[in-house]
Amino acid sequence: MRAAPLAVSRSVWGSLTPPRVISLLAAATYVCLGAGGVAVLARPGPTPADVGIGAVLMIVGALAAAPAAWRGWWGVEAPAAALTVLGMGAVTALGITRSVLSDRWLSWHLWIVVAVALLIGQRVLRIWGRWWEPGFEPHTRLRQEETRLLAARAIGADILAAYDDVDAPDREESSHDHSA
Asked: What is the DSSP string of the chain?
């Protein structure tokens, strides 16, 4: 019975794209941001429409970004993360505007949102426009031809080496026939 949880945890850990800790933290960040969007919509009382739209953008972006970060689908994660930050920025800006207009002091939540936005912005800038992790891109036509040519040369060298090995015993015998 103890082997099953260990096997599941290894399977879950193995499904993360290396570097696994970074992928796990990125996915967890998006899950937390999605939960924040749900919390905005689920709070008691009416939610203003503009704040609701921002929260929906956060949720939709987080729903797409979390599995993309988990599996390393950078082509999906970058736009989804940008959508999440857009929604988070809208919710924050509209909340700040309402706070200023009602003479309430801006809360510490603003600084957490700014920090998270900067972290996600850094991630977006790092992976935007890249469909594959560096070093794992598909080969270009030139690289495919270079690989094919290298393989053909290696096969040719193996064939020549095989013919040399077949002729080698004859040469050795002929050198031993002539005694000095």
From this structure: --HHHHHHHHHHHHHSPSSHHHHHHHHHHHHHHHHHHHHHHHSSSPPPHHHHHHHHHHHHHHHHHHHHHHHT-HHHHHHHHHHHHHHHHHHHHHHHHHHHHTTPPPPTHHHHHHHHHHHHHHHHHHHTT-SS-TT-PPPPHHHHHHHHHHHHHHHHHHHHHHHHHHHHHHHHHHHHHS--
